[in-house]
Amino acid sequence: MPRPRSNSNPAFSRPSGGKKSKPKGDYRARQPAHEYELEALPGLEQVVATELAAVPLARDVRGLRFWYPGSPERLTRLRSAVAAYRIKTWDVPRPRGLLGHQQLGELTAFVGEVAEQGGHRSFRLGAAGKESAVMQRLAEELSTALGLTHDPEEGELLLRLRPSADGQGWDVLARITRRPLSARVWRECNMGGGLNATIAYAMHKLAGQRDEDRIFNPMCGSGTLLIERALLGPYDAMVGVDIAADAVACARTNLKAAGRDVEVAQVDALHTELPPRSFDLVITDLPWGDAIGSHQSNEVLYPAFLKEMNRLTSRRGRLCVLTHELRLFERVMGQQSDWDAKELFQVYSGGHHPKAYLLHKRA
Ligand SMILES: C[S@@+](CC[C@H](N)C(=O)[O-])C[C@H]1O[C@@H](n2cnc3c(N)ncnc32)[C@H](O)[C@@H]1O
User: Fold this and answer.
1) Tell me: the pLDDT tens digits for 172-191?
2) d(Cα 90, Cα 168) in Å, to the nearest integer?
């Protein structure tokens, strides 16, 4: 079993966030502000709002909608949002109104700008009734005016249409990136049961991000929690284990793609033979018993896991757990006296609604 390795990556020798390049000249005067909206997994809106609050120049923020005069590239670096969209509202009672001469001209300019900035060559519509004659006509008009291919399945630029929140018009949202932001570029290896990266980011942020943490990610699977933490900034040491050889290989592939050097070993998380109090933060998404593991094996795994992690965690250490086995987890928590738990969030993702908990050792 490898010891947790100190973080010697030179990329971490300066505070998280890295070097900020100064905008040249009067940045604000050179770029018109546009309106944007971020998409969050239901349950993670607050985490996304907190990350948005740190975006310089974002203003007139209403929930996850805001005005922003800076480069859209800055928004593509948000880690908690599923996607970022340019948004514009038209004062029309129904989508047919977008085919009016003036509205169509404005819509074409709007979509054209996003397509040019994002380098999109094709588009698709995401709207209720996108097969309707009006939507098809809109798609034809945009395709002709902009020279973009309308590809209903694989179109690179996703255009969503929806009634505006005040019921007075229609919103058009144009996703600024070809893929969702949650589909990380480092994910070269995909695994069934792989964690959505925005959830991994949220877990780390809410469990606390400390430079001196020695971090353990048991049951690391494809390495999502390891990589999202490594990309956040400094830590003292980090190690991941998984019992399955293919998961370990998958995590290593993704870590390499992310350019991060983190030790991952094929070891049973319950039998690491590491000394007591080796870690300050243990963070994991336990098997949920559907895609990975079984409900029956979880009956044994969950209590054994809590006990062993108590041994491995330092006196003031934290254990952050995501699980969909809510009844089992809460029952097991009620039967033990090692940990105090608080719920961090419940998130809706891929048909599941797991909860994240933060546990502290009882004194
Ligand atoms: C829900 S998946 C983790 C997914 C991972 N976070 C990701 O993003 O890919 C759970 C993982 O726990 C591993 N596992 C189950 N029991 C284990 C044990 N006793 N020790 C180590 N790993 C275990 C499985 O092999 C599986 O990869």
Assistant:
1) 999 999 999 999 999 999 99
2) 9
